[in-house]
């Protein structure tokens, strides 16, 4: 099993399947940070788990130790971590898994290496849909294990702006279990401290409302919003790169909410067009436009449609033409316009029809059927 040498990078991304985000488990603050640190070392194209390294000195400092690493204490922490179980519910199935299957200390190199349980692969490797991504730095400063779990859950639903979670489910997901059976204790020990700490130290903030059934609090409605956070003081180029990565992750969250996926390369192309098309407020405009497109049932390839739309908009701006209206044709001096651009897939369909028709002077039944389908689809864009 390959062991990559990786230095601490708190600006790395943590990506977990939503099933793992909403799993039930109880980890201490340091155990969560260890797990999230090594998750951040997983690359999106990794086909299998590796042995993931954590510097022993860094590990020791995470625990608040100063001076030489205290191996006895560190070994106890990893032994306990190997015993911890998480539960994932999928339909009628309840899966119980361990986080870590193997730990190796190398005092000579100064690293401790950890291996994930292989059964976690579907929840951490090559995720294309139903996943959540956030920056590791947003959780490394949190002091409470409840705050870390609450942050993850809220990031999972950030694209919605709000989410209602049953109180019993919330207790299990954040790892409180039956510890605070009385709601007022749960509110005092978990909800309010998490709200304060998340607001002060991460990129989001939240408020909440209590939903009562027969006078008892049965569920919590969370309202989630993004908070402007100044990037860490880094070199200018690193700062720009971090901002670009954050924008990609922000846009990815929007896309994945509609069961879609976009690569960083695709986003880079779209981002360049959006800046030319929308100007200074381009990111907000891009997200609003993307959401409108994703919500349409008649657009088969929304990412291609978005790219084509932005490209057309930029070309019209550069030509000094109103980008919100596209002329289809003129007849007898009348000017007909459409306010939606025919997507790439429809144009390709039209070209396919022309190519097939050129093969023969006789139009067979298949070509005739294609022509009728094309006419029906074009009507939507010419009305």
Automatic annotation (TrEMBL):
<keyword id="KW-0175">Coiled coil</keyword>
<dbReference type="InterPro" id="IPR036390">
    <property type="entry name" value="WH_DNA-bd_sf"/>
</dbReference>
<feature type="domain" description="Initiator Rep protein WH1">
    <location>
        <begin position="14"/>
        <end position="155"/>
    </location>
</feature>
<dbReference type="Pfam" id="PF21205">
    <property type="entry name" value="Rep3_C"/>
</dbReference>
<comment type="similarity">
    <text>Belongs to the initiator RepB protein family.</text>
</comment>
<protein>
    <submittedName>
        <fullName>Replication initiation protein</fullName>
    </submittedName>
</protein>
<dbReference type="InterPro" id="IPR036388">
    <property type="entry name" value="WH-like_DNA-bd_sf"/>
</dbReference>
<dbReference type="Pfam" id="PF01051">
    <property type="entry name" value="Rep3_N"/>
</dbReference>
<keyword id="KW-0614">Plasmid</keyword>
<feature type="coiled-coil region">
    <location>
        <begin position="346"/>
        <end position="380"/>
    </location>
</feature>
<dbReference type="InterPro" id="IPR000525">
    <property type="entry name" value="Initiator_Rep_WH1"/>
</dbReference>
